[in-house]
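We emphasize that the prediction below concerns an isolated chain of 126 residues; any contacts that depend on oligomerization or on bound cofactors are therefore not represented. The input was used exactly as deposited, without trimming of termini.
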Amino acid sequence: MRISDVAKSLGIPVSTIRYYERKGIIPTPAREGKNRSFSDKDVRAIQFVRDAQSVGFSLKAIFELLSDNWDSANLSQLATQHRQTIRQQIETLQRMERALSMLESCRCRTLDQCNLQAGFSEQNIT
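Result of the prediction step, given as a token string:
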């Protein structure tokens, strides 16, 4: 797959893919003449980078996860740490989703009149 096709399918600029390659975050793809030829594995790596960045992973953390010199104990520890971060983000997103759902039907004129805070009692937070 050509770089322009990869960029279009993933919704990212070509320059971003080239940056990932220059920094060694993704492996250098095969070449067909002057053109890069991305395999399905390459595309999955780029998608992983994009998704990880979208949830706040640094490029350094992503590089560590994608590097070829894994120590299995270290990789397991990294994965566990990142999974915990993701779980916390999911909980935060779920709270925000509930709040926004309440706000969609809110007809209050001021925050003082709004019952939004009551919707976040201890039983609703968990």
